[in-house]
Amino acid sequence: MASDLETLLEMGFEKPKAELAVKRSGGLQGALEWLEANQDQSYEDMIAKSGKPEEADDDPDAEPAALKPGEQPRSLVCNDCGKKFRSQAQAEFHASKTQHVDFAESTEEIAPLTEEEKKARLEELRLKLAQKRAGTSEQDKIDKKRNEEIRRKSTKETQDIKEDLKKKEQLKEAAAKRKEKQDEIDAKARIKAKIAADKEERRLRMEKERAEREGRSAPTVAQTSSLPTASGPVESKPASAYTESRLRLQTSAGSVQKSFPVTATLFEVAAAVTQDTGTEVQSFTQNFPKKTFDAVDFGASLKELGLVPSASLIVK
Question: How are beta strands 244-251 and 310-315 bridged, if at all?
Fold first, then answer.
């Protein structure tokens, strides 16, 4: 036959708590009552009240032991709830737990639990333990789900911030490349203008020297005014004179027209289309002349790509 401790362990009680309950109650019935009354306390809390596990008599929460040999058979009854007790110590324990104060003596002797009653009590406690563990498990699932939702939300917010920073960095890099290319174009234009001016100066000098040798007058400024100068030839409304480009964009949602500064990059145009349609732009296609602008060209300006003063693009 299994011992009281083995029976408690089979029911699922922790070994330290079960040992403490058996020591403090002296029997299976008292141990069960004591464990039930202290089920929400940890083992450290159970022993902290008395200082040592062995000192069961000093713990106010401990279930009193059974009647000692020679003690007169009697019982006490709680008039508040009708529960009966073998000894005054058990009644005091009940009063400390329930705040009941109305007790009366009874000549009825409380018989120990029968085997059937013990089994029923054990089964009742098993059910209570199972329900408590199920409730704890369900709460753990709820807490885990809530923590996962918090983690996902935090991850999404972090990703959004990273995407925003990445787009800003791309815009910044595109602007820097655009300025670098424009500076290079301006520098080349200045060099060409300087070369042209030097050539013109040499030509005029040679013309003057030839005229002096031939005994005729040198060409006047009016005769050479049509020649290129350091500032370059004058053109009627060149593409560089435009400050804005009108684009007709054919998207999956339909055709739209937008105006952009000639210095705007295709990346900025793609960002505007994405904001309007909600879809990422992979490339732009121009039919006349036939040309496709992909991600490699996104850093170039509309002016550099020849999309000034207007153009028609298919968005893909």
Answer: parallel
Instruction: Give the list of residues 6+ apart from residue 229 with CB closer than 8 angstroms, or none.
Output: 193, 196, 197, 200
Rounded distance between C-alpha atoms, residue 76 and residue 58, angstroms: 23
- What global pTM score does this model have? 0.30
pLDDT in tens, the chain (316 residues): 567 787 777 777 788 888 888 887 767 777 777 777 777 777 787 776 544 444 433 344 444 444 445 545 457 888 888 887 766 767 777 787 788 888 887 777 666 667 777 777 778 777 877 777 777 778 888 888 889 999 888 888 888 898 888 988 899 888 888 888 898 898 899 899 999 998 999 999 898 888 888 877 766 654 444 444 444 444 446 667 788 999 999 998 888 899 999 999 999 999 999 988 888 899 999 988 888 999 888 988 998 888 988 999 999 8
51: left (phi over 0), alpha (psi -120 to 50) or beta: left
- Is 292 in contact with 284 (CB distance < 8 Å)? yes
Other C-beta atoms closer than 10 Å to the C-beta of 39 total 13
